[in-house]
């Protein structure tokens, strides 16, 4: 396992150790699914993906207080993927934030909007067995809050729920699939792709949207999204953000002293161990 170790100082009496994993992209399928899904599994599946995830989970169970998975646990919706992922998410030690691939019926087949997501959600029920749109878990005096931003948007009810969590008065670690816009993260992403390509960050203004209008429509903040990003950045009680989605590792502050840890892909056996003091 390629384990990156980081620390976060928030004044805890007893240190807390977190294993952050993301983007496992498990691609299983069997005779319960149709030929299109079988073709996808044939294209993307590799036993390494399952082996790597099992290794990460074993390490986390042995050495950490909590395992946070920030989405794209599965590559597309299938019975075999639900079975595999459902078992993992039933583990009390695993806390989950959904990614865009959790709702992907066939990878890259369609414009992914709210209606598409809800169709997938209906297909998934009881699906992965974990709350997908908002969830919380208090461990060692820290409130872990996951919010679904997998389509680069937030919704008003998620803002209301987050405010309720802040009222609890505990330090919060926010678990998202898509990272929040931050200039150095944006610059790095552009530097390793090409100008005008998509950065897949949440809360991009017009100057930072991709030139590709198809992608820009998807990423341009709608509704409450930009306000929610500003709200998160303004809340000192939110001590850090854990995210994935962009498939590389990057750490930068969303506000002074409050980092966003973007972790590299689990399917290539990357993981981050975060010790919180
Ligand atoms: Fe991913």
Number of strands: 11
Q: What is the residue-mean pLDDT, rounded to a whole number?
A: 93
Helix content: 25-40%
Order of helices and strands: EEHHEHEHEEHEHHHEEEE
| Total domain modules | 1
Distance between the termini: 24 Å
Main β-sheet, spatial strand arrangement: 5-6-7-8-10-9
List cofactors, ions and other ligands: fe (ii) ion
Quaternary form: single chain
Beta content: 15-25%
Rounded to the nearest angstrom, the radius of gyration is 18 Å
Instruction: Tell me, briefly, the overall form.
Output: globular
List the uncertain runs: none
CATH topology assignment? Purple Acid Phosphatase, chain A, domain 2
What is the level 1 CATH name? Alpha Beta
Structural class: alpha/beta
The total count of helices amounts to: 8
Report the sheet with the most strands, covering strand number, pairing sense and barrel closure: 6 strands, mixed
CATH-defined architecture: 4-Layer Sandwich
Features of the shown structure:
five-stranded mixed beta sheet; binds fe (ii) ion; 11 strands; globular; 32% helix; alpha/beta; six-stranded mixed beta sheet; Purple Acid Phosphatase, chain A, domain 2; 277 residues; 8 helices
How would you describe the overall organization of this protein?
With 277 residues, the protein is an alpha/beta fold. It has a single domain, classed as 4-Layer Sandwich (Purple Acid Phosphatase, chain A, domain 2). It has eight helices and eleven strands. Strands 5-6-7-8-10-9 form a six-stranded mixed sheet, covered by helices on one side. Strands 1-11-2-3-4 form a five-stranded mixed sheet, with helices on one face. Strand 9 (250-255) and strand 10 (258-262) form a beta hairpin.
């Amino acid at each position: 396992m390629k384990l990156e170790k980081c620390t976060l100082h928030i004044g805890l009496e007893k240190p807390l150790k977190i294993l952050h994993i993301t983007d496992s992209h498990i691609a299983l399928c069997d005779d319960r699914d149709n030929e299109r899904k079988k073709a996808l599994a044939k294209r993307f599946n590799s036993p390494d993906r399952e082996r790597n995830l099992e290794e990460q989970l074993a390490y986390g169970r042995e050495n950490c207080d909590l395992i946070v998975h920030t989405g794209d646990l599965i590559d597309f919706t299938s019975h075999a993927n639900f079975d595999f992922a459902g078992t993992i998410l039933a583990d009390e030690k695993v806390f989950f934030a959904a990614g865009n691939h959790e709702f992907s019926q066939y990878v890259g087949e369609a414009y992914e909007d709210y209606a598409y997501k809800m169709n997938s959600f209906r297909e998934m029920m009881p699906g992965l067995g974990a709350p997908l749109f908002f969830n919380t878990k208090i461990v060692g005096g820290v409130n872990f809050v996951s919010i679904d931003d997998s389509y680069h948007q937030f919704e008003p009810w998620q803002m209301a729920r987050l405010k309720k969590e802040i009222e609890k008065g505990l330090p919060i670690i926010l678990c998202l699939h898509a990272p929040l816009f931050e200039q150095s993260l944006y610059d790095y992403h552009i530097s390793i792709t090409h100008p005008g390509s998509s950065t897949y960050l949440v809360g991009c203004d017009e100057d930072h949207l991709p030139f590709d209008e198809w992608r820009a429509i998807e990423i341009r903040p709608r509704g409450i999204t930009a306000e929610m990003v500003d709200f998160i950045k303004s809340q000192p009680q939110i001590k850090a953000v854990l995210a994935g989605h962009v498939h590389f590792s990057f750490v930068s502050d969303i506000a002074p002293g409050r980092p966003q840890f973007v972790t590299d892909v689990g399917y290539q056996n990357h993981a981050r161990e975060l010790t919180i003091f």
